[in-house]
C-alpha cells in the first residue's frame, strides 16, 4: 500500500491476461435489453411476454451449439450485425411475437432453423447462409404468421424454407437453392391471404439446382391469388443444361 492509501497491484511478466468484455443474456429475460459489441448466447433463453431485445448494429453474436431462443407472446427480438449460430440452434417465435433481422449477416450451422408460429418475421437487407463446416442449414419454417416480409435480402443453402397459411411480401430478394432442397415452399389452405413476390432490380429470384428432389419455388394448395413479377428462375438441371420453370 502506498503512503496515500492507494492499493498497488504488481503484475510480473507472464501474469497479465487481456480479457475482452462480452455480452450475454439470462435464461429468462424479464425486461427490455440491448446487446452490443460481442455476445455469446448459450442454453435455452426465453424472452418473456412484452419484452423487447435488440442486438445493436456492429455487434458480433455467436449462439452456441444446441441453444435456443424463444420469443414469447408479444415479445420481440431484433438482430443486427453479424450472427453465427452453431449446430442445432433454434430461434422460435410464439403467436404475436416478432423476429426482425435488420441489415444482419447470418451464418447457420447444420440443423439450425428459424420457426415462426403465429407471430411475424421481417428480413430487411442482409443475408443468411450456412457456416463453412455445414452442408446446409435447416431453414425458415413459418406457420400462421400475421406477416412475413423479406426485402433486399439473400437467403442461401437452406434445406427448406416453408411459409404456410401466412401473408408473404417478398421484394428484391434472392434465394440460392442447393441440390436436394426447396428454395421456397408455399401453402395457404384458407383464402384471404396475400402472397406477393416482386422485384424491381435485376439478379433477384431463385437460383440453384432443380430436379425431382429440389425445387426453386413450389406452390402447394394455394387458396389465394399469388402475384409474381419480374422474378428470375435460373434453376439448373443436374446436367447443367439450361433453365427450368419454377
Describe this structure in words.
There is one protein chain. By secondary structure, the protein is mainly β. The protein has one domain (44-236). It is 0% helix and 48% strand. It has no helices and 25 strands. It has strands at residues 28-29, 33-35, 38-41, 44-47, 52-55, 60-63, 68-71, 76-85, 90-93, 98-108, 113-117, 120-124, 127-130, 139-143, 147-151, 154-156, 160-164, 168-171, 174-177, 182-187, 195-198, 205-209, 215-219, 226-229, 232-236. It has a 16-stranded parallel beta sheet that branches. The protein is globular and about 50 Å long. The N and C termini lie far apart (77 Å). The model is unreliable at 4-11, 15-19 and 240-246 (pLDDT under 50).
Computed Rg = 21 Å
Q: Could you describe the largest sheet, including whether it forms a barrel? A: 16 strands, parallel
Mean pLDDT: 89
The chain-level structural class is: mainly beta
Low-pLDDT segments, ≥5 res: 4-11, 15-19, 240-246
The number of distinct helices, counting runs of at least 4 residues, comes to 0
- Strand proportion, as a percent range, falls in over 45%
Q: Give the termini separation.
A: 77 Å
Shape: globular
Helix content: under 10%
Topology as a string of helices (H) and strands (E): EEEEEEEEEEEEEEEEEEEEEEEEE
Strand count = 25
Please tell me the total number of domains. 1
Amino acid at each position: 500500500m502506498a503512503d496515500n492509501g492507494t492499493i498497488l497491484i504488481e503484475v510480473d511478466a507472464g501474469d497479465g491476461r487481456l480479457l475482452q468484455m462480452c455480452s450475454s443474456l439470462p435464461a429468462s429475460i424479464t425486461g427490455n435489453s440491448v446487446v452490443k459489441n460481442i455476445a455469446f448466447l448459450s442454453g435455452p433463453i426465453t424472452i418473456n411476454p412484452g419484452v423487447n431485445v435488440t442486438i445493436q448494429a456492429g455487434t458480433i453474436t455467436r449462439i452456441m451449439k444446441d441453444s435456443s431462443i424463444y420469443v414469447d407472446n408479444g415479445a420481440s427480438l431484433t438482430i443486427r450485425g453479424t450472427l453465427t449460430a452453431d449446430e442445432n440452434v433454434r430461434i422460435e417465435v410464439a403467436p404475436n411475437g416478432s423476429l426482425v433481422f435488420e441489415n444482419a449477416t447470418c451464418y447457420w450451422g447444420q440443423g439450425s432453423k428459424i420457426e415462426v408460429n403465429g407471430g411475424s418475421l421481417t428480413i430487411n437487407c442482409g443475408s443468411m447462409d450456412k457456416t463453412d463446416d455445414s452442408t446446409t442449414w435447416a431453414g425458415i419454417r413459418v406457420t400462421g404468421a400475421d406477416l412475413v416480409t423479406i426485402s433486399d435480402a439473400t437467403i442461401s443453402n437452406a434445406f427448406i424454407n416453408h411459409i404456410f397459411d401466412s401473408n408473404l411480401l417478398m421484394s428484391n430478394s434472392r434465394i440460392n437453392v442447393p441440390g436436394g432442397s426447396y428454395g421456397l415452399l408455399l401453402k395457404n389452405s384458407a383464402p384471404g391471404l396475400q402472397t406477393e413476390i416482386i422485384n424491381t432490380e435485376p439478379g433477384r429470384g431463385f437460383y440453384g439446382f432443380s430436379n425431382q428432389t429440389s425445387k426453386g419455388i413450389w406452390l402447394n394448395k394455394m387458396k389465394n391469388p399469388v402475384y409474381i413479377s419480374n422474378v428470375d428462375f435460373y434453376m439448373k438441371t443436374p446436367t447443367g443444361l439450361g433453365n427450368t420453370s419454377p
